[in-house]
Structures are given as structure tokens and as C-alpha cells.
Design a protein that fits this description.
Elements (H helix, E strand, L loop, with lengths): L15 H20 L4 E6 L4 E4 L1 H7 L3 H4 L12 H15 L9 E6 L5 E12 L5 E9 L1 H49 L5 H25 L8 H17 L2 E6 L8 H20 L5 E9 L2 E8 L14 H12 L3 E6 L5 E8 L6
Parallel strand pairs: 6-7
Antiparallel strand pairs: 1-2, 1-5, 3-4, 4-5, 7-8, 8-10, 9-10
């Protein structure tokens, strides 16, 4: 006769061996999850030394695990981030102020072969029972996504250029022809003493004004061309056209001439200035806008200031795409965009990008 369990004996208390087996299974499960993850996962200690890396890390950066374990995580970063990384971690450990922990951020990594590529980095922090602190980084390669975004942006640029060319070559020519015919008709009416000549004179003025606006629109849609004046000329025309179209004060200035010998960089900087000026006029109700171009410490710095109502705390629904587009354009050039309120009122948009190498 089998012995029945005694309910009064209470729940089963696992033995030390059972606990060790359960712990081992849990550790194996966690290791399998990390190892089979699609994204690179790296664990570092407080001294920024790599403790663990999965197979995806090897594929992404081109190193074998034994080449990076025990090494500083900064070896996977290009300069100037490599030299600064340890100080960032040290500042956090001293101050407790989180700048990237718990927040996904787009940064750049460097492979074993020296190539630099865009990545999405998410960093988490854990305090172990022993009191030791570790940091876990999850890294996703953004190369293909950035290439697609770049392609889409260039398709948009090409389409804008085509529309601008059509406006210039077709619509503007037709408006000019209509204006000439209207002038001839006006002169004939004046000779015959017809009172309708005054009305036709007003039509001639409106057609001429429409032709001017169409040419300005075409110029704004077409990319900057280096051999026709380059970025500085384009920004000067942008300021003049904005002042004339919106009847506000809009000036372009520079401390010293800034020549940008790369047409792609010129186009992107012009588009950023164009978007910032448009935001200042349409959304901030600015009455004065200043566009400033300078070369500082190896960077090209574009600043657009206005005296409008400033940045709203809660942007209206549907707004914000302009800021995202400007930020993406700056990232394409390896630069940054900073939008901040001005102490005297209004907004300042600062774009800083590395200056392209000069042509020999």
C-alpha cells in the first residue's frame, strides 16, 4: 500500500542542489536569448571594459569576441567620441545625471576595418546584488535605413528641381509673353484714347508681379549651383525674396566669405536655411529674420534668428516635420541642429556641419 503525502507537512522546500540546477537553467536561458538576438548586445562594467558580447556584435563590428573582451568599449567608436567616452561615464557616476541611459540615440560606430557607420544605441543600467554596476548596450545597424532615407531625400530634391525648372522655362515664359501682349494692347488703347487703358495698366502690373513671384519660387525649388554663385549667393537671394514677399526685415550676413566647394552640402544647408526662415515667418510671426553663415573650428555654422513668438511648449498637431527634416539633413552631413529660444524673444536655429575638403 502506497504512502499518501501528508498535507500538514507544508510545501516542498527545494534543496540546494535543486536551487543550483534552477539557477543554471535560468542562466543558460538568459545566455541563449542574448546570443541569438538579432541586434548586437554588449555588457560593460563601470570602468567601460567589455565583459560580454554576442555573435551579432562580431558580425556588426568585425571583431572576434576574444579581441574585444576586457577592452575599453571606446574601441568601437570613432574620434572624437572615443577620447570623450570615459569622461561621459565618469560624469554620470559622479553626478547621477542620465544623458543617454534609458534613452535610444542615433550615434556612430567604427568597425575593425576603420569604417564608420550609423547605429541606434540603447543603454540600460543594472546594479547587481554584489553592489557592482553594469551597463548593457543594445546596438542596431542603421546603414540600410540611412541609405534609404538619403535616397528618398535625393528623389525629393530631384523632383523639386524638375518642378522649379518647369516653372522657370514654361510658366515664367508664358507670363512674360502675356505681359508683353498686354503692354502692346495698353499702348494701343492709350493712343485711341480708350478709358479701359487704365484697367489694362493694372493687369500689366499684376502679370509682372506674378512673373517675379514665379521666378522666385522656381529659384527656391532648384538646387544651389556652385558655378552660379554657390551657397552665399543663394542665401542672399533667399533673404531678399523673403523680405520682399512677406514685407519683413530679412538680412543675410557673414563675417568672412564662406565658400562651400561641395554642391550636396550647399544644397542641404540651403534647404535647412529655407525651412528655418519659413518657420520663422509662417509659424513664429517674425518681423525680423537674420541669416548668418560662418566657418568656425573646421565647421560650417549656419544660424537663423528671428524675433517671433518663440517655440511653443506643445507644438500644434501636424507640425514638427520641418524640424525632423532639418535634423535629418544635418545628420546626413555629419552635423547637428540645435533649436533654442532667444533671451530677447524669438528662436535661434543653429546648424553646424564639418566643412568639406577644399578642392586641390
Amino acid at each position: 500500500m502506497s504512502k499518501q503525502p501528508n498535507p500538514a507537512s507544508g510545501p516542498h522546500t527545494p534543496s540546494i542542489a535543486e536551487l543550483q540546477d534552477a539557477l543554471e537553467v535560468s542562466e543558460q536561458r538568459a545566455a541563449a536569448v542574448v546570443e541569438t538576438a538579432v541586434n548586437a548586445i554588449i555588457i560593460i562594467d563601470e570602468n567601460c571594459l567589455i565583459e560580454t558580447a554576442n555573435s551579432a556584435t562580431e558580425r556588426l563590428f568585425g571583431y572576434k569576441r576574444e579581441e574585444i573582451i576586457g577592452k575599453n568599449i571606446s574601441m568601437l567608436m570613432p574620434e572624437p567620441y572615443r577620447a570623450r567616452h570615459d569622461s561621459y561615464v565618469g560624469n554620470y557616476l559622479r553626478s547621477g545625471v542620465k544623458r543617454i541611459i534609458g534613452i535610444g540615440r542615433e550615434v556612430v560606430g567604427q568597425r575593425k576595418d576603420g569604417s564608420v557607420f550609423p547605429i541606434d544605441l540603447s543603454v540600460g543600467e543594472a546594479l547587481l546584488p554584489s553592489g557592482r554596476r553594469i551597463f548593457t548596450g543594445i546596438i542596431r545597424d542603421l546603414t540600410e535605413r540611412k541609405a534609404l532615407e538619403d535616397k528618398l531625400l535625393h528623389i525629393s530634391e530631384d523632383e523639386q528641381a524638375r518642378i522649379g525648372q518647369d516653372i522657370h522655362d514654361d510658366l515664367c515664359q508664358q507670363l512674360a509673353a502675356i505681359g508683353c501682349l498686354a503692354k502692346v494692347a495698353q499702348k494701343n488703347l492709350i493712343k485711341s484714347g480708350c478709358p479701359e487703358a487704365a484697367s489694362l495698366e493694372e493687369i500689366v502690373k499684376l502679370v509682372s508681379k506674378a512673373n517675379t513671384r514665379a521666378r522666385e519660387t522656381a529659384r527656391g525649388l532648384m538646387p544651389v549651383v556652385i558655378d552660379s554663385g554657390g551657397l552665399m549667393k543663394a542665401l542672399e537671394e533667399l533673404a531678399d525674396n523673403t523680405a520682399r514677399a512677406y514685407e519683413i526685415k530679412c538680412d543675410f550676413r557673414y563675417d568672412n566669405p564662406v565658400q562651400v566647394n561641395d554642391n550636396k552640402t550647399s544644397v542641404q544647408l540651403f534647404r535647412i536655411a529655407q525651412e528655418a526662415v519659413s518657420n520663422a515667418v509662417k509659424h513664429s510671426q517674425a518681423r525680423r529674420v537674420d541669416v548668418h553663415l560662418a566657418r568656425q573650428s573646421g565647421n560650417i555654422v549656419l544660424i537663423v534668428r528671428d524675433d517671433g513668438v518663440g517655440i511653443p511648449d506643445k507644438p500644434a498637431k501636424g507640425t514638427g516635420m520641418g524640424l525632423l527634416t532639418m535634423n535629418h539633413r544635418a545628420q546626413m552631413m555629419g552635423g547637428t541642429i540645435h533649436v533654442s529660444p532667444r533671451p530677447t524673444g524669438g528662436t535661434q536655429v543653429t546648424c553646424s556641419v564639418p566643412a568639406p575638403a577644399k578642392n586641390p
